[in-house]
């Protein structure tokens, strides 16, 4: 666990009167007749890094899209820093929310016709109304933060996948959000470039940025997360501090999932080794 702000356990934070920055209660969402989320409860406190793990199709990315208002649940409450996301009534309200919530997608979604620098300054200038010179200075600082200060005038097509993803992270930070959501941001990358993106996220967590990560990188999730939620079939099966969930999961389903995930840490409740088969050699002719 790297962050140090409200990296209290949620129960302790609640007892201390600290309200979650992100709060989901009994969230249900269906696509047509297909239920996707079936009563999700989730808390993220300011300064925390929270990871959501689980098998494909379990609802992880859908939770992120509900937090940022891209999807609206049929039932339940979603609150981000006092704003009821499930009750946003206008496009203006949605824009105001997205100024405060950064979202880094699996695909980089950079503007291919703009340089790296212009990708970073276009939204702060047009949406936040910032002075272009000020936005440019901030952009250079962010490129340095993601170790790409020498790529300011390159175009996305000239960058590797890992470099493009780091630009996407810098672009999200340029809006000075209260919260950043990462949706499996390494899944489309070559193995060689995964590490450089994880290093940037690790630095953000150390700096106290509030982050929610959907990830298949289990060891990384254990390292950086204050809390981890395991989802399966649209429900939260188990959640708790990262070390407890990865090393001593309570639910048999969590143990089964981690046992079949190559990058998962060894759990304390792993199945014991099978005893060797005992043979009585007297029954065999030599």
UniProtKB/TrEMBL annotation:
Its EC number is 3.6.3.-. It comes from the Bacteria. Keywords: Amino-acid transport, ATP-binding, Cell inner membrane, Cell membrane, Hydrolase, Membrane, Nucleotide-binding, Transport. It is found in: Cell membrane. Residues 22-258 form the ABC transporter domain. It is a peripheral membrane protein. GO terms for cellular component: plasma membrane. Pfam families: ABC_tran. InterPro entries: AAA+_ATPase, ABC_ATPase_HisP-typ, ABC_transporter-like_ATP-bd, ABC_transporter-like_CS, MetN_ABC_transporter-like, P-loop_NTPase. It is an enzyme of class 3 (hydrolase). GO terms for molecular function: ABC-type amino acid transporter activity; ATP binding; ATP hydrolysis activity. SUPFAM superfamilies: P-loop containing nucleoside triphosphate hydrolases. Belongs to the ABC transporter superfamily. This is L-cystine import ATP-binding protein TcyC. It comes from Paraburkholderia sediminicola. The gene is tcyC_4.
């Amino acid at each position: 666990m790297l962050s140090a702000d409200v990296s209290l356990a949620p129960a302790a934070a609640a007892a201390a009167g600290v309200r979650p920055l992100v709060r989901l209660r009994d969230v249900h969402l269906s696509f047509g007749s297909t239920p996707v989320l079936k009563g999700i409860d989730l808390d993220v406190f300011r300064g925390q890094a929270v990871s959501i793990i689980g098998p494909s199709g379990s609802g992880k990315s859908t939770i992120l899209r509900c937090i940022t208002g891209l999807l609206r649940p049929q039932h339940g409450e979603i609150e981000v820093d006092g704003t009821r996301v499930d009750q946003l009534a206008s496009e203006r309200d949605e824009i105001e929310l997205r100024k405060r919530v950064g979202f880094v997608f699996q695909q980089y979604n950079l503007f291919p016709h703009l340089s790296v620098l212009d990708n970073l300054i276009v939204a702060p200038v047009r949406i936040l109304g910032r002075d272009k010179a000020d936005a440019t200075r901030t952009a250079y600082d962010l490129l340095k933060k993601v170790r790409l200060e020498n790529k300011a005038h390159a175009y996305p097509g000239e960058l590797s996948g890992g470099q493009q993803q780091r630009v996407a992270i810098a672009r999200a930070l340029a809006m000075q959000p209260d919260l950043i959501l990462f949706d499996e941001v390494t899944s489309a990358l070559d193995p060689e470039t995964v590490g450089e993106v994880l290093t940037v996220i690790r630095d953000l967590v150390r700096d106290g940025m509030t982050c929610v990560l959907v990830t298949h990188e289990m060891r990384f999730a254990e390292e950086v997360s204050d809390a981890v939620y395991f989802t399966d079939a649209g429900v939260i099966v188990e959640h708790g501090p990262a070390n407890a969930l990865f090393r001593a999961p309570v639910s048999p389903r969590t143990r089964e999932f981690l046992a079949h995930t190559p990058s998962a840490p060894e759990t304390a409740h792993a199945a014991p080794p099978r005893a060797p088969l005992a043979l009585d050699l007297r029954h065999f002719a030599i």
